[in-house]
Specification:
With about 220 residues, the chain is an all-alpha fold. It has one domain. Helices cover about 75% and strands about 0% of the residues. α6 runs antiparallel to α7. It starts with a helix and ends with a helix.
C-alpha cells in the first residue's frame, strides 16, 4: 500500500518536478552566483535590478503551486491552503507583467518578445480566472483553472530543459522551441481534466436479472 502511494501519478509528478527544477537551477540559473562579468549577467545589463522583481516572485510561484494540489493539505490545513494560494496569486501578479517588461527590454525583435507577452498574459489571465472562481464558490472549476495556470508556470522549466537538450545555435530554432512549449501549455491540463471522459474505465458486465416468476414455477 505504501509503495503504491509513493508511485502514484501525483507523487511521480512531484518527483519529476523536483528533478527538473534542480536541473534548470544548475544548468541555467547558477550564473546568479557568479560575478557580473559572467556572459549571462552582461546579457541582462539592460534590465538592471528589475530582473530580481521578475525572478524572485516567479520562483515563489513555482515553489508554492504544488502545495495547492495537495488534497491532504487542503483538507487538514484549509487556512494554510488559502494563504499559500493568495501568495501564489500575488507572485504571479508581479512576475508575469515583469517578465513581459524584461523581455521587451532585452529584445527589439517582435518574434522574441511576444513569446513572453503571450506567456505572461496567459499565465496571469488563468490565475485571475482561478481566483475569481474560488471567490464565486466554484471549487471544481477553480482547481481546473489553477491547473491551467500552473501549466503556464511550468513553461519556465520545460522550455529551458528542451533548449538545453536540443542546444540550438540558430535564434529562430530557439524561438520555435519556446513557442512549442507555450503552444502545448494548455493541452496538458486539459488532458488531465478530461482523462476519464477520454478513456473511461471499462464497465464490469452486469449479471442478467433473475426471472423470479420462472424460478417460482420451476421453468
Amino acid at each position: 500500500m505504501q509503495s503504491a502511494r509513493l508511485t502514484s501519478p501525483k507523487n511521480l509528478f512531484y518527483f519529476a518536478l523536483a528533478v527538473s527544477t534542480l536541473f534548470v537551477l544548475y544548468n541555467n540559473e547558477r550564473f546568479f552566483l557568479h560575478d557580473k562579468s559572467d556572459p549571462a549577467w552582461i546579457h541582462l545589463q539592460p534590465v538592471g535590478n528589475w530582473i530580481y522583481l521578475h525572478g524572485i516572485p516567479g520562483a515563489i510561484a513555482l515553489l508554492i503551486a504544488p502545495i495547492q494540489f495537495s488534497s491532504r493539505i487542503r483538507s487538514r490545513y484549509p487556512a494554510f491552503h488559502r494563504a499559500s494560494g493568495y501568495f501564489y496569486f500575488v507572485s504571479v501578479l508581479i512576475t508575469a507583467p515583469m517578465g513581459m517588461y524584461v523581455a521587451r527590454l532585452l529584445s527589439s525583435n517582435p518574434v522574441s518578445y511576444t513569446i513572453s507577452w503571450v506567456h505572461g498574459g496567459s499565465w496571469l489571465l488563468c490565475t485571475l480566472i482561478a481566483i475569481k472562481l474560488v471567490r464565486n464558490g466554484d471549487i471544481t472549476r477553480h482547481r481546473e483553472w489553477m491547473m491551467r495556470s500552473y501549466s503556464w508556470a511550468l513553461v519556465f522549466l520545460t522550455a529551458r530543459i528542451a533548449i538545453r537538450v536540443i542546444n540550438p545555435t540558430d535564434p529562430n530554432v530557439f524561438d520555435a522551441i519556446v513557442w512549442i512549449t507555450i503552444g502545448t501549455a494548455m493541452l496538458w491540463p486539459q488532458l488531465i481534466i478530461n482523462w476519464k471522459q477520454i478513456f473511461p474505465a471499462k464497465r464490469q458486465p452486469q449479471p442478467s436479472p433473475v426471472n423470479r416468476a420462472a424460478v417460482a414455477t420451476g421453468d
